[in-house]
Amino acid sequence: MATVTNTYAKAFADAVLDGKLDPAKTLSEAQALAALVNESKELREVWDAPSIPAEQKRAVLDAISQREGFSRTTRNFMAVLIDHRRTNFLAAIVKQFEAELNQRLGFAEAEITSARDLGDNEKRTLEAQVEKLTGKKVRAHYQRDPNLLGGAVIRIGSTIYDGSVSGQLEKIRQTLSS
Question: Are residues 96 and 120 located together in one domain of the fold?
């Protein structure tokens, strides 16, 4: 599956960047399309059914694209997935497409979990610190976890920076027990 998702995600990223399209807008459209497919069992069944001709599947796609205002590139990308019977990989491909765009455009994805909701100034300060740390522009996604007690935990790829109160308490516990 990884090969399939990587191949299509890279090809889609090539089309977006070579065509000088807005990557953020195209990603947003692809995510909206994936959400639409995820929410509609009937749509998945139509696009996965081998008995329905590809032309009819593309006609459904065209109607959706027109209604939602999707770009030609996003529509064509989905048509390729329909034609090659890869619609069941759409969510994974879109996720990999996002990672591919981030890598090519020099962004780091940061998952930031804090004990409380952060204000705009706090978010900007935290993102600036993460940018210094990684040397890349940051796309941050925020979550709230009251179990942290205070502070924040930042995950960038497989690296975790734990600045939470509960994480500090755990370090103290380990130090005292050893």
Answer: no
Domain that holds residue 14: 2-103
Domain match, 97 and 111 both:
no
pLDDT for residue 26: 92
Number of domains in the chain: 2
Q: 110-141: per-residue pLDDT in tens?
A: 888 888 888 899 889 888 888 888 888 888 88
12 and 99, same domain (yes or no): yes
Distance CA 30, CA 38 (A): 12
Percent pLDDT > 90 in the chain is 38
**Same domain assignment for residues 98 and 142:** no
Contacts of 67 by beta carbon, 8 Å cutoff, 6+ apart: none
Beta bridge partners of 170: none
CB 58 within 8 A of CB 79: yes
What is this structure's pTM?
0.72
pLDDT of 28 over the 70 cut? yes
My answer on whether 173 and 150 are in the same domain is: yes
